[in-house]
Design goal:
The structure holds 2 protein chains of 2 kinds. By secondary structure, chain A is mainly β. Helices cover 15% and strands 44% of the residues of chain A. Chain A has 4 helices and 18 strands. Chain A has a 9-stranded antiparallel β-sheet. In chain A, helix 1 packs antiparallel against helix 2. Chain A is elongated. The radius of gyration of chain B is 9 Å and the shape is rod-shaped. Chain B is mostly loops. Helix content of chain B is 0%, strand content 0%. Classes of the chains: A mainly beta, B little secondary structure. Chains A and B meet through loops of A and loops of B.
Chain lengths: 257, 14
Amino acid sequence: MFEARLNNATTLKKILDAIKDLLNEGTFDCSDSGIQLQAMDNSHVSLVSLTLRSDGFDKFRCDRNLSMGMNLGSMAKILKCANNDDTVTIKAQDNADTVTFMFESQNQEKVSDYEMKLMNLDQEHLGIPETDYSCVVRMPAMEFARICRDLAQFSESVVICCTKEGVKFSASGDVGSANVKLAQTFNVDKEEEAIVIEMQEPVVLTFACRYLNAFTKATPLSNQVQLSMSADVPLVVEYRIAELGHIRYYLAPKIED
Amino acid sequence: LKDQFQIDQFFIPP
């Protein structure tokens, strides 16, 4: 028996919004420690890794490890049927070929359940090597989304250059060129407005804008985003989900000329 | 995608 409850459907809706543009389907691996999903996009350029800890749920029960392959488009249709303040419970029997989403209104007067067929996706997890990143940047998630959106107008790719002084995002194309420089902040009132740079070595890396823009669909989940970079390895874009876990996107760099 | 590395080139297959 598997049962996971969140007192508020908003978080689950936001999580799905953050992955459904990149992934058509995904396997949710459930164990007593929580729910994990790891999947590459269709082009195998990026990888999504979602971790939801069992202690972050309002109720969590997982008697046996369970892998549930889900069509994320179908899951999105079902979650659209939940009000934001509904309680959502995900339920499945051991070895079942369906999963049930139950939505309960706050006053308990409306209870709906939606059963969805599971898929056999046969997805195998890739091992992600432990990496000491040369640069780790924490910045407001909204600011990162804004920069990715703005620079995508100028080029298909963005160059991220990180030094001790700051981080610079650049794009150039037929229209011209664009540069956005962010300096590390000191003495900000609110932690979520801070820009913090931890640098061992400066890095310059080039990434495809369309993937960065897809990652920013996670912006509603978190005030801050963390970018981890080293030369010649994938960028990690991490959004923490308060009290529940995190979503990490890994993006392979572009091949330099 | 010829100017683009793929993500599974960097990670360890199962």
